[in-house]
Amino acid sequence: MTREVLLTNDDGIDAAGIRALSEALSAEYDVTVVAPATNQSGVGGNRSWWETTVEYTERDLGYAVEGTPADCVAVAEVALELEPDVVVSGCNHGPNIGAHVLGQSGTVGAAMEAAFLGTPAIAVSLYDRGNLPIPPTVSHDDFALAGRVATDLVARIDDDGRLPFGADVLNVNVPAADDEAAADPTYRVTEPARGFDVIEFHPGTDAAGDGGEAGSGAADGDASGFGERRGEMGMELRDRFWREFLRGDVADDPGSDRRATVEGEVSVSPLSSSRSIAGDRVGETFDVTGETIDVTGETVDLAGE
Question: What domain range is 209 assigned to?
Fold first, then answer.
């Protein structure tokens, strides 16, 4: 039986990444594309609500939705009455790594929306170690390995419709096809990296050094773009996580998605849509009227002492 694949993204239906994945997946599976009409990068799992009417039109590749990536998944299920075996979201133009991006990425947001609705999903993103943070232009060929990886992972869904590792979502980051590591890539099971930090930066001044005050004038001039002057007024909050990543100077353990990406590996992070950590204590009751609460067989002082 041929698998039914719903393909969406956040870069928009005209992006090179989704067209490359459509071609690769269509060689093995029945693919329906339902994607945003315009670029929706960074919207996370947002969906349109209440009075908003979500319009969609048919295009040469599939259906273009005037809404978010999560809207696209909902439109596919409700308006188009599709029943896919799996949703593939991507291929994003740029990496989606780190625990802090899971709620910000439209690529991951569409995959999570699918999981909420009971369909396993794979989010696929491209990184180019030679031209980060995001190459200004990409071609169809840049996504060749991403297409192969997506096709291989869909094939690994079991007969009960479950993803590998018991995941609801796989967040996958893949090197560009011209990366030397792409010829024989290592697939590594990872966790989203932590250690997220934010630095304050006032546009119109030089970027802060790693240990200095924001706007101190200690520009480092690296290729990341953090050393450039940007803007004329206001304030930017810049992500030190990316500063380290773009330099390739990360102290993460081998199990982090950021480390795998820096080393040119295919990072596969199994995710749960519930994000619950209650474990086997689900359903228990507990008392919060006293001064302590029993959470692990021990008591914790509610006053924090």
Answer: 195-249
